[in-house]
Design goal:
The structure holds two protein chains of two kinds.
Chain A (H helix, E strand, L loop, with lengths): L23 H5 L15 E7 L5 E7 L1 H4 L4 E6 L6 E2 L5 E7 L2 H10 L1 E6 L16 E2 L3 E3 L2 H7 L2 E9 L2 E2 L7 E8 L2 E6 L4 H12 L6 E4 L14 H14 L3 E4 L2 H7 L2 E2 L2 E9 L5 E10 L20 E7 L15 H18 L4 H7 L8 H15 L1 H4 L10 E9 L9 E7 L5 E5 L8 H13 L6 E5 L15 H28 L6 E4 L2 E4 L7 E2 H5 L7 E7 L13 E9 L5 E11 L6 H20 L25 H4 L1 E7 L20 H13 L5 E2 L3 H8 L5
Parallel strand pairs in A: 1-14, 9-30, 12-13, 17-18, 21-22, 28-29
Antiparallel strand pairs in A: 1-5, 2-4, 2-6, 3-5, 7-18, 8-18, 9-16, 10-15, 11-12, 11-14, 16-17, 19-27, 20-21, 20-26, 23-24, 24-25, 27-28
Chain B lengths: L4 E3 L4 H8 L4 E4 L5 H6 L7 E4 L9 E4 L2 E5 L4 H6 L1 H6 L1 H8 L4 H6 L2 H5 L6 H7 L4 E2 L2 E2 H4 L23 H6 L3 E6 L2 E6 L22 E7 L4 E8 L10 E8 L2 E7 L6 E2 L1 H7 L5 H11 L11 H17 L1
Parallel strand pairs in B: 1-3, 2-3
Antiparallel strand pairs in B: 4-5, 5-10, 6-7, 8-9, 8-10, 11-12, 12-13, 13-14
Classes of the chains: A alpha+beta, B alpha+beta.
């Protein structure tokens, strides 16, 4: 019986090394086929007609002109007369035609009339919201009394704009029916297994008859868990026409309806004692992510104080609905908390590094990790030599430093894996997981190769199909723990199964066998080691098969990480332009399987963080409620020149490795905005309290709200 | 997408004849027109490609100055010896485009005649969008809109990269149409429309710009742009300055429905460029600026752009 553990530090063949992602070459050369690239014989294109109003009731739909057009094969009413539409760009009708161009013309020929209703899209003006939903305050201790008697106080208002996921590959899929009861969906999804179940249910066939395939995925960030209305419509159109149908969202639809991160606005008061210990926290927040409003961000974030109170108001708006965005609610909470604490440190006359260290016990069980990470970050940033009190700079361009802490769970999800060992020496993992581009495929291969003691190139990963052993959705940093746990257990079981099969043929006991460095070893030395391929030949024509699952026996993964980031920025005091000089990210995530992939996750997160910190926001027209920047010209994503130098340090070794694998998708994207805002505040000498930190907002802060 | 004819004449005469049909539109680099067509904001019945006309491309020195053909691409133009040595204001404006893809396709004529980036215009509400009898942009989100020349309903900004430096350098444009050729100052290519039915250009039916000529006058000149992103991004403010023995010119981009010439700023620089006169030029440039509801910050940026352009020219 296998012992379900990760190999000890000295025994690791691949784990912890810098291994390049296996699908890098096919992606770089364009050979990787995404959902958008799938083209089937006789395929139709579908285009959806969008509602131009943010709030309206459909009064009539006339599809006759579209239906009469050459090349239009089917017009499908998605939302019928009488339906109340709650956001602009919502889908009303889909047109399937023989080409994308004809489908577009057909969509333009559909006539829809609306009764236009009043809309609300500016949640920042919470007092004007027609349907604000305040929640009960959550209070610990007596913040009012603690605040009243404290010598150091600070207060501020902090704002985080609503942003979109803006996945480079938009949402969508190709659907093709094999027979009346069986459909294949090539989907851009974070959840192949879940989408199969959802589509089966909604279209009235067994989930097992829905085959979802996702080999490569162009970004989801939390917005691609559902089959979505367009997935069901696509499958329905394919069924009705008897032809494959492709339906991918246009860029404007992608940015306006396919995912939003809720805004957060907060007013915070804090207090500290004479030594710089935080003694009180009082926050009121509100925000919106569409018709359902927004749940409260976790405030205060990372820290818990003896005396604290928080109250949140959810503000429904007539805007495209929120979806989970990488570390839901955390980046907003991080900005509000870390800016407020930086302001309190300033009021206390302390270096924020000292101030955060002083209060680090209030972070709970990760306190010692944060201390190690802050010290490492300070070393990499040169913080102790370079930090100057707020507003010390002179001249037109002033630089400053800022820091922020974050936390996340990241426990592995439910996952199943089958491992097959063939007599030609190939070892295969079959697993119903998807790879969002994070390197999941590489991780599975690496764990399998590690366990069999062979090179990563000697194993095969079959994944991305819902017919394979079910694995959870890729979200919440749960994938790496889930698939590595399932694969490790399956692979250990498979090694045992191989030994069981071949030991008699070698005239020995299975307990006498061991796979190491591509060779089969005999522990008792009775025979010389033989290459794995030679040993595998004894398997016979039937491959050995074994399964493993997560969760399962043995401690292979864990939950809960810290992480700190520091920013070095320059601000042009005359233009308000913020430039990133350097970002330092220090991150723990338990046992790191592939150092290169882990570091890449952090680099990507920093870039995404710089984007939402400096340029990215959804802008809505007050007249129509339409999103004004639902394209990539004014929905501004950072370019490589905007990113600055990035320094990533992963915490490894004793204290970290033995925890097992912990997810990394969310943690490093939480703190960049807060660290950058604190650095901009330090540089300018005035509180920079709003994201994105556009020249407009930074100048307004510098000019005391005059701009 | 509306079906359209495509023609690629070899002479300007053929081009003018082909452009005389209803709905015909000239196609140069296509960096603007093609996206307008994809967005449904333009639906020409005929595209007349100008890039195959040999006479329209390349830059060469003439008695009147440096003549630049209308279909000369921005990228190569930025490398031209005379542009680099004598007209840094043009080279800097080209560098400000930031996209290698755009630089390799966008032409001089196309840059001068590109349509505004106003998000109401691009969403199909028209160049002078109205809502309940009021200017939609004026009462809506106008963070990128005009701070000059915005008293009427039109508040979009002219997006041309080359217009500010060319106007500052006193360049002229050659215009060819069914009635022959005429020469106009580059600034006279532009007008402010009163409604979405009117054009923001002064070109007549079937007229094209065939080239521009920059007089070979010795000047201190420079362009300065302020952008949110360092990469490909529209400037929030841009200014070109040229100071010669004949006087000074200061032109702002992304500031008004037309490239905006500031006589007051030019006056401040007439005596030469210094730290003080540059500062004064910035102040003078925005003395009569008028903020809309959401673009007051652009006044500060315009002031700084003028000042820094002057200092860069010093």
């Amino acid at each position: 019986m296998a012992e379900y553990v990760w190999p000890a530090a000295g025994d690791r063949l691949h784990i912890g090394k810098h291994i390049s992602r296996l699908d890098g070459p096919v992606k770089a050369t364009g050979r990787a086929k995404y959902a958008y690239d799938v083209n089937r014989r006789g395929m139709l294109w579908a285009i959806m007609v969008q509602c131009p109003h943010a709030h309206a009731r459909i009064t009539s739909i006339d599809t006759s002109a579209a239906e009469a057009m050459d090349g239009v094969v089917r017009v499908h009413v998605i939302q019928d007369v009488g339906t109340e539409i709650q956001w602009a760009h919502d889908e009303i009708v889909a047109v399937a035609a023989t080409s994308e161009e004809v489908a577009r013309d057909g969509a333009a020929a559909v006539k829809i009339e609306y009764e236009v209703l009043s809309h609300f899209v500016n949640e920042r003006a919470v007092d004007e919201a027609p349907d604000a939903q305040p929640a009960q305050a959550e209070t610990t201790g007596d913040p009012a009394a603690a605040m009243a008697s404290a010598p150091t106080k600070s207060s501020g208002a902090y704002h985080v704009a609503q942003i979109a996921h803006c996945s480079l590959e938009s949402h969508g899929q190709v659907a093709e029916w094999q027979d009346e009861e069986t459909v294949t969906l090539w989907a851009s999804t974070q959840a192949i297994s879940g989408v199969a179940s959802q589509l089966g249910e909604q279209i009235g066939i067994p989930a097992s008859n829905v085959h979802v395939e996702t080999q490569y995925m162009g970004g989801g960030f939390g917005s691609k868990f559902s089959v979505d209305r367009w997935g069901v419509v696509c499958a329905q159109l394919a069924k009705d026409t008897g032809r494959p149908v492709k339906l991918m969202l246009d860029r404007d639809q992608e940015v306006s309806v396919a995912g939003a991160r809720p805004s957060t606005h907060a007013e915070v008061s804090t207090a500290a004692d004479a030594d710089g210990n935080v003694v009180a926290w009082d926050s009121k927040s509100w925000g919106s992510g569409g018709p359902a409003g927004a749940n409260s961000p976790p405030l205060p974030y990372v820290f818990s104080f003896d005396n604290q109170t928080h109250m949140h108001t959810s503000v429904p708006t007539n805007t495209g609905p929120a979806r989970a965005w990488r570390a839901p609610r955390h980046p907003q909470a991080c900005l509000v908390t870390m800016r407020a604490l930086e302001d309190l440190a300033h009021a206390a006359g302390m270096d924020p590094l000292d101030f955060f260290l002083k209060n680090i016990e209030k972070t709970g069980e990760r306190a010692s990790t944060y201390v190690e990470e802050l010290e490492k970050g300070a070393e990499l940033m040169g913080w102790r030599d370079r930090w100057r009190p707020r507003g010390s700079g002179t001249g037109t361009v002033r630089s400053g430093l800022g820091l922020a802490l974050h936390t996340w769970g990241g426990r592995g999800h439910r996952s199943n894996c089958e491992v097959l060992a063939y007599r030609d020496g190939l070892v295969e993992a079959r697993i119903g997981s998807q790879d969002l581009g994070t390197g999941t495929r590489t991780i599975i291969a690496l764990v399998l190769a590690e366990t069999f003691g062979v090179a990563v190139e000697q194993v095969k990963v079959t994944m991305g199909r819902s017919v394979l052993p079910a694995s959870g959705a890729s979200g919440g940093s749960t994938t790496v723990g889930g698939v590595s746990g399932a694969t490790r257990r399956a692979a250990l079981n498979a090694v045992d199964a191989v030994f069981e099969r071949i030991a008699p043929r070698l005239g020995t006991e299975m307990a006498n066998l061991e796979l190491r460095n591509g060779q089969l070893h005999f522990k008792d030395g009775s025979m010389a080691a033989m290459p794995w391929r030679q040993a595998a030949a004894l398997i016979g024509v039937n491959p050995v098969s074994a399964t493993g699952a997560n969760p399962g026996p043995g401690q292979l993964n864990d939950s809960g990480v810290g992480g700190i980031q520091m920013a070095d920025v320059s601000v042009d005091m005359e233009t308000g332009v913020v430039s990133i000089n350097r970002m330092v990210a220090v991150q723990d995530c338990g046992l790191i399987l592939d150092m290169k992939l882990a570091e890449s996750q952090v680099y990507g997160s920093l870039i995404m963080g710089v984007t939402y910190a400096l340029t990215e926001e959804r802008v809505f027209d007050p007249h129509t409620g339409q999103m004004l920047n639902a394209e990539m010209e004014f929905y501004k994503l950072a370019g490589i020149e905007d990113v600055g130098e990035m320094i990533v340090h992963m915490m490894t070794g004793p204290g970290y490795d033995e925890r097992g694998v912990i997810g990394l998708g969310e943690p490093p994207v939480i703190a960049p905005g807060a660290a950058i805002a604190n650095a901009a505040t330090n540089a300018t000498g005035v509180p920079i309290n709003e994201m994105p930190m556009t020249p407009e907002r930074v100048l307004a802060a510098i000019n005391g709200g005059m701009a | 997408m509306r079906a359209f004819e495509y023609s690629s004449p070899r002479t300007t005469e053929d081009a003018i004849r082909l452009l005389s049909a209803e709905g015909a539109v000239a196609l140069a680099g296509g960096t603007d027109l093609l996206s307008l067509m994809k967005d449904g904001a333009a639906a020409p019945s005929r595209l007349v490609n100008l890039k195959a006309i040999p006479d329209l491309t390349g830059a060469h020195e003439t008695d009147g100055g440096l003549h630049i053909g209308a279909t000369t691409r921005l990228g190569p133009l930025g490398e031209h010896r005379v542009i680099r040595e004598s007209f840094p204001a043009v080279a800097q404006a080209i560098a400000g485009v930031r996209s290698r893809q755009v630089l390799s396709m966008r032409t001089v004529g196309g840059d001068l005649l590109q349509r505004p980036r106003c998000w109401y215009f691009r969403a199909g509400f028209g160049l002078v969008p109205m809502h309940d009898g009021q200017s939609m942009a004026k009462t809506g989100d106008n963070r990128y809109h005009a701070i000059f020349g915005n008293a009427g309903d039109a508040v979009f900004v002219n997006p041309s990269s080359l217009a500010p430096p060319l106007i500052a350098l006193g360049a002229s444009a050659t215009v060819l149409g069914p009635d022959g050729e005429r020469t106009v100052a580059v600034e006279d290519l532009y007008r402010t429309p009163a409604s979405s039915d009117e054009s923001e250009f002064t070109l007549g039916a079937a007229e094209i710009v065939t080239g521009v000529t920059i007089p070979m006058r010795s000047s201190s000149n420079a362009t300065y742009e302020i952008r949110n992103r360092k990469g490909f991004d529209w400037p929030l403010a841009a200014a070109s300055v040229a100071v010669s023995d004949g006087g000074a010119r200061v032109v702002l981009g992304h500031a008004a429905p037309t490239p905006w010439m500031s006589a007051a700023a030019a006056g401040a620089l007439a005596g030469g460029i210094s730290e003080a006169s540059a500062e004064a030029a910035g102040d003078a440039a925005v003395a009569d600026a008028a903020a809309l509801s959401g673009n007051g910050y652009k006044i500060q940026l315009a002031r700084v752009a003028v000042k820094r352009a002057a200092l860069a020219a010093m």
